[in-house]
Amino acid sequence: MVKAVFPGSFDPPTYGHLNIITRGAVLFDSLDIVIAVNSQKKPLLKADIIKALFEEQLQAMNLNDVRVVIYDGLIVDYCRTVGAAVLLRGVRSSADFNYEFELSILNKQLDEKIETVLIPTEPRYFVLRSSTIKELLNLGGDISAMVPPAVETALIKQRERQT
Ligand code: ADP
């Protein structure tokens, strides 16, 4: 039984993340999405809202075995607590690869038993990144091809609250 963990800030959750989750759920016996709380960055969406949005989406996609948790510690500690052997991450570009490669080395130093597995994105999710979505949102651009409708609604509500 191979347990995997997919960590990230997921602010906001996108179709690119959901694609990695769908593919990860096929590869591993169990998959936990771990929403990492970054105290240094001001989030667009709060972690509990991201969790609820993921749960709604996973149910709609019939991915009922994928768990969603919020965690603010070291990801290798989370893996050890739940007995997960794999850290799953996605890559869109060579820049992502460089970053993910360095992160994998760091995590390997922290716990040599935990393996990082990288899944390359599908071409249609290539341009999907949180910073682009934030910018489009601020300028009133269309983000419907990037995030599920419930995420778009949550983002618009959040923007209205801030203005
Ligand atoms: P982090 O802040 O930890 O990088 P993100 O939420 O930005 O968290 O991303 C979580 C993981 O999902 C990362 O491995 C990232 O490379 C991957 N990812 C983000 N967007 C996409 C996408 N469009 N296609 C594939 N993987 C993606």
Put the structure in a nutshell:
The chain has 163 residues and is α/β, with parallel strands linked by helices. It is built from 6 helices and 5 strands. Helix content is 46%, strand content 18%.
What do these coordinates show?
The protein has 163 residues and is α/β, with parallel strands linked by helices. The protein has one domain (3-126): Rossmann fold, CATH 3.40.50. Helix content is 46%, strand content 18%. The protein has 6 helices and 5 strands. The protein has helices at residues 15-27, 47-60, 75-82, 94-110, 130-138, 149-162, and strands spanning 3-8, 30-36, 67-71, 86-91, 115-120. It has a 5-stranded parallel β-sheet with strand order 3-2-1-4-5, with helices on both faces. The longest helix is centred in the middle third of the chain and has 17 residues, at 94-110. The radius of gyration is 16 Å and the shape is globular. Adenosine-5'-diphosphate binds next to helix 1 and strand 4.
CATH superfamily: HUPs
**CATH class assignment:** Alpha Beta
Number of helices: 6
The CATH level-2 architecture is identified as 3-Layer(aba) Sandwich
N→C terminal distance: 48 Å
Largest sheet: 5 strands, parallel
Structural class: alpha/beta
List the helices and strands and how they pair.
Blueprint: E1 3-8, H1 15-27, E2 30-36, H2 47-60, E3 67-71, H3 75-82, E4 86-91, H4 94-110, E5 115-120, H5 130-138, H6 149-162
Parallel strand pairs: 1-2, 1-4, 2-3, 4-5
The structure holds adenosine-5'-diphosphate.
Name a few traits of the molecule:
163 residues, alpha/beta, 6 helices, binds adenosine-5'-diphosphate
